[in-house]
C-alpha cells in the first residue's frame, strides 16, 4: 500500500461524506428523478457496459477463474435490462427519509420530533456481480445516502462503465455525483474499513468467510451475516406428508442459500415412520444424508460427527438428529443455530406457540419452508441483506437498514434551569401525533 | 484470573441465558407483579440494605476514595425510597414486548408478523452507584430480559444486599430469579465481555474512559457513548438575550453532564456585541473561557489550542470560536462533534432549517438548551443510556433499547418451489394491520 493510493482514497471518501451532508435533504421527487436519470443513462450506455463486461469475462476466462464466478460476473442485455427495471422499482418504493416517528410537546412552545434520516455514507464491498453496483446505487440514492463502492477486480471494467453511466445520469439530477464513488484497488478495502469517521455502514456481499473477515476488521457497523445454520424440527404431531415437502424445499430449493436448512431434527416418536419417508425424498433429489446414532437405526446414513451440527454445508448435504422432546430440539437450536431462520412442522398449536416464542432467531417459522426468509418474499420491496445481529435491523433488511433517526427539538429560548429545583416547571409530555 | 473464577462465571451466565429464554413470554401483568414484589422486598430489606451501604461508605472513607465517588456510593433512606418509587414507575410504563410491527399476508394462509421481543441477556457494568442495580433490574424485568450485573467493588455489600432483596421479591413472582445475577469479582468484567454467545448487549455506566475501554474490548454491542462534545452555534440572526441564557444553561446547569456544551461558535457579525455579553454572564457563573484568535480581539480570553476543540471538559470551561458563516459552523461541528447534541440559536427559520437538516447528531436543537437531551425530559419514562451510535437506538434510549424484533411466519405447508419458475404463484403481500 503506497502513499499514492492512500491520499486519493481519503480525499475521495471525504468528498463522498461532504456531498452526503446534503443528499438527506432531497425531496422524494428529486430522488426519484435522479433514479430515472440513472435508468436512462444505463440504457444509453448499455452497449459500452456490455462491451466492458465482455472484456472482464474474457479476462476471467483467460485467467482460468471458476465457472461459477464467471457466471455471476456475466452481464448480458437481459440481465442489464433487469437491473435497470430494478432501478425504476426502487423509485416506486416509499421514501424512508423524513418520517415523523415521534412528535411530542415537552412544554408550551418546546416541540420534540424524532425524524428518520440517512445514515450518511455506505461502504459496499462485493465480489464479482457487477449488477450489484446498479442495485446498491439506486438504494443509496433513494435513502439519501452517499456510497463508496468496491467491486472485485475481475469486474473492474464493468463497474467502471456502470459508474460512468450512473454519474452521467446523476449529472442531470440534484443528487450530487460526488456522493457516489467507485474504488478499484484491492488495497483500498482495508483503508475503507478503518475510516469509521467517514463511513457509517459496511455492506459486504460475498461468501461467509468474506463477511466474517470484514466483521473482524472494522469498527464500522456491518450489515450482514456470516453464518446461516438453519434447522427444521419435525414434531411428533406433524403432518408427515407436509413435513416431507417442507424438508425437501428447505434443503433443495436452493441449497447454497443462507436460508436453506443444514440440520433436520426429528421427534423420536415419529422417527421410525418419518425418517424412511424423508430420506427417500431427499435422496431422490441427490442429497447426501448424515445422521446421529439414533437416526442410523432407522435408515442407512453416513454417521454424523460433532462438527456436522456446526457446519453450514451450502450444498446438497443434510445432517439428521433424533430428539426426545421439543425442549431437546430447542436446546440443540440454542447451541448450534446462527440466529437466522428456524422452523417447526407440527399440527399442535401449543407446541408451535412455544417454539415460536422460545427460539431466538431473526425468523421463526411454523409449517412452511425456511426458504421464505427473504426480503422480496416478505414484501420489503428491496433487500439490502439479511442480518443475524440481535439489535435491529434484524432479518431481511430493506431500505430501513440504510436509515437512522435523529431527535429534533425546537424551542423559544427554553432552558433546563427552569425545570429544576423547588420551583421547577413541569413538562407536559403531550404526544401530538 | 484463576480457573476457580472462570467456571462459576460461565455457569452463572449460562444459567441467566437459559432462564431468559422464558422471560420474554411473561405477560405484562406477570412482569408488573414481579416489579411490585421487588419494590416490597426492597422496602422489607431496607434496614439491611442501608446497613450494608453504611459498611461500604465507611470502607471507602477508610481507603481515602474521592468524595465525589463516596457521594455517588451513599444510599440513604430517601435515595433508596426514590429508587423503589422508580421500580413502581417502571411497572407503569407500556410493555415494549409483543408489539406487532408488521402483519402481512404473503399468500393465502401464509401470514408474516414482525413482533418485538427481548434482546436476551443484558450485561450491565457500573461504577459506585448501587441504586443503578435497582433501576436496571426493574428495566430488565419489564423488557423480559435476563441481566448480569457487575458493580464496582466499593459498592459490593450494598449490591449484594440489594440483589438478595430483589431475588426474594422475584421468588414471589413468575420471573425466574436465575435470570438476574450479580458478579462481584473485577476479573469477571473481561470474561463477561468475551461471552458474546450468551450476552446480547453491554450497558456500561461510568466515565468516558470506562465506556471507551468497554467498547474496545468486546464484540457484544455496547449501548452508550464515550464522548459528549456538544456545540452551541449563535447565528447572526440570534436574539442575543436568549442566546446568552441558552449558553449559560447549556454550559453551567450541570457541567459534568454529557449534554453540556464544550464549544460556543459565534457568527462574526454579532461577535463584537455578543461576546462581551456572554463572557460576562459565563464568568459570573465561574466559567473559564478559552478563545480562538478572533474572539480574543473582542474579549480577554485564554487562547485556545488545537486540542481544545476536541476536548470534553466535563467542567466549568468553555472554548469559543468565531465563524464567518453557517457553513463554517457546520464544518467545525462535522469535524469535532461527537454526534451527541448540537444546537443553534437564530430567529432565521431558513438558517435553522438548514442547521437541523445538515447536522448529523442524535439531537439537533433550535433555540433551546442542549441540556434537554435526556430520556426523562424527552418523556421516554426511563433512560437506559444515551447512544451516539448511528444505527438505532440513537440518542436517549428508553426501554426500546432493550428489545429487538423477530419475524414470525406461519403457513400450512407452504413451500418456495411453488413461487418459482414459469408457473410461479404470485405473492399477495397484503398488509393486515
UniProtKB/TrEMBL annotation, chains A, B:
The keyword Lipid biosynthesis does not apply. Coiled coil: none annotated. Pfam families: Aldedh (PF00171). Pathway: Amino-acid biosynthesis; L-proline biosynthesis; L-glutamate 5-semialdehyde from L-glutamate: step 2/2. InterPro entries: Ald_DH/histidinol_DH, Ald_DH_C, Ald_DH_N, Aldehyde_DH_dom, G-glutamylP_reductase_CS, Glu-5-SA_DH, GPR_dom. It catalyses: L-glutamate 5-semialdehyde + phosphate + NADP(+) = L-glutamyl 5-phosphate + NADPH + H(+). Keywords: Amino-acid biosynthesis, Cytoplasm, NADP, Oxidoreductase, Proline biosynthesis. GO terms for cellular component: cytoplasm. It is an enzyme of class 1 (oxidoreductase). Its main location: cytoplasm. SUPFAM superfamilies: ALDH-like. GO terms for molecular function: glutamate-5-semialdehyde dehydrogenase activity; NADP binding. Residues 14-284 form the Aldehyde dehydrogenase domain. The keyword Nucleus does not apply. It is found in: Cytoplasm. One of its GO terms (biological process) is L-proline biosynthetic process. Its EC number is 1.2.1.41. Belongs to the gamma-glutamyl phosphate reductase family. HAMAP family: ProA. Catalyzes the NADPH-dependent reduction of L-glutamate 5-phosphate into L-glutamate 5-semialdehyde and phosphate. The product spontaneously undergoes cyclization to form 1-pyrroline-5-carboxylate. This is Gamma-glutamyl phosphate reductase. The lineage of its organism: Bacteria, Bacillati, Cyanobacteriota, Cyanophyceae, Acaryochloridales. The gene is proA.
Amino acid at each position: 500500500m503506497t502513499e499514492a493510493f492512500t491520499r486519493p482514497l481519503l480525499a475521495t471518501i471525504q468528498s463522498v461524506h461532504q456531498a452526503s451532508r446534503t443528499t438527506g435533504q432531497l425531496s422524494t421527487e428529486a430522488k426519484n428523478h435522479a433514479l430515472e436519470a440513472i435508468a436512462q443513462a444505463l440504457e444509453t450506455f448499455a452497449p459500452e457496459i456490455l462491451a466492458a463486461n465482455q472484456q472482464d469475462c474474457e479476462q476471467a476466462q483467460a485467467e482460468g477463474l471458476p465457472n461459477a464466478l464467471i457466471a455471476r460476473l456475466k452481464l448480458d442485455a437481459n440481465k442489464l435490462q433487469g437491473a435497470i427495471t430494478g432501478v425504476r422499482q426502487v423509485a416506486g418504493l416509499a421514501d424512508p427519509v423524513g418520517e415523523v416517528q415521534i412528535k411530542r410537546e415537552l412544554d408550551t412552545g418546546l416541540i420534540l420530533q424524532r425524524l428518520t434520516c440517512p445514515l450518511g455514507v455506505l461502504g459496499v464491498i462485493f465480489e464479482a456481480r457487477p449488477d450489484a453496483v446498479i442495485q446498491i446505487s439506486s438504494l443509496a440514492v433513494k435513502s439519501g445516502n452517499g456510497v463508496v463502492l468496491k467491486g472485485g477486480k475481475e469486474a473492474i471494467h464493468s463497474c467502471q462503465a456502470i459508474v460512468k453511466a450512473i454519474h452521467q445520469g446523476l449529472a442531470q439530477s440534484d443528487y450530487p455525483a460526488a456522493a457516489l464513488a467507485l474504488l478499484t484497488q484491492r488495497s483500498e478495502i482495508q483503508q475503507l474499513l478503518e475510516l469509521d469517521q467517514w463511513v457509517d455502514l459496511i455492506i459486504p456481499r460475498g461468501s461467509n468467510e468474506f463477511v466474517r473477515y470484514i466483521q473482524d476488521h472494522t469498527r464500522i457497523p456491518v450489515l450482514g451475516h456470516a453464518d446461516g445454520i438453519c434447522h427444521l424440527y419435525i414434531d411428533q404431531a406433524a403432518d408427515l406428508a407436509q413435513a416431507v415437502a417442507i424438508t425437501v424445499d428447505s434443503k433443495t430449493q436452493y441449497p447454497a442459500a443462507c436460508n436453506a436448512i443444514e440440520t433436520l431434527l426429528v421427534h423420536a416418536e415419529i422417527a421410525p415412520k418419518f425418517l424412511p419417508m424423508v430420506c427417500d425424498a431427499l435422496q431422490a433429489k441427490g442429497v447426501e444424508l448424515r445422521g446421529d446414532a439414533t437416526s442410523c437405526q432407522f435408515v442407512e446414513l453416513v454417521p454424523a460427527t460433532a462438527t456436522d451440527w456446526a457446519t453450514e454445508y451450502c450444498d446438497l448435504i443434510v445432517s439428521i438428529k433424533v430428539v426426545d422432546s421439543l425442549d431437546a430440539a430447542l436446546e440443540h437450536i440454542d447451541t448450534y443455530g446462527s440466529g437466522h431462520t428456524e422452523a417447526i412442522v407440527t399440527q399442535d398449536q401449543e407446541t408451535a406457540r412455544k417454539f415460536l416464542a422460545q427460539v431466538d432467531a431473526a425468523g421463526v417459522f411454523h409449517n412452511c419452508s425456511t426458504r421464505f426468509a427473504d426480503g422480496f418474499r416478505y414484501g420489503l420491496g428491496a433487500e439490502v441483506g439479511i442480518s443475524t445481529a440481535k439489535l435491529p435491523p434484524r432479518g431481511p433488511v430493506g431500505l430501513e437498514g440504510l436509515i437512522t433517526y435523529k431527535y429534533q427539538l425546537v424551542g423559544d429560548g427554553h432552558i433546563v434551569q427552569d425545570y429544576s429545583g423547588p420551583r421547577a416547571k413541569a413538562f407536559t409530555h403531550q404526544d401530538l401525533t
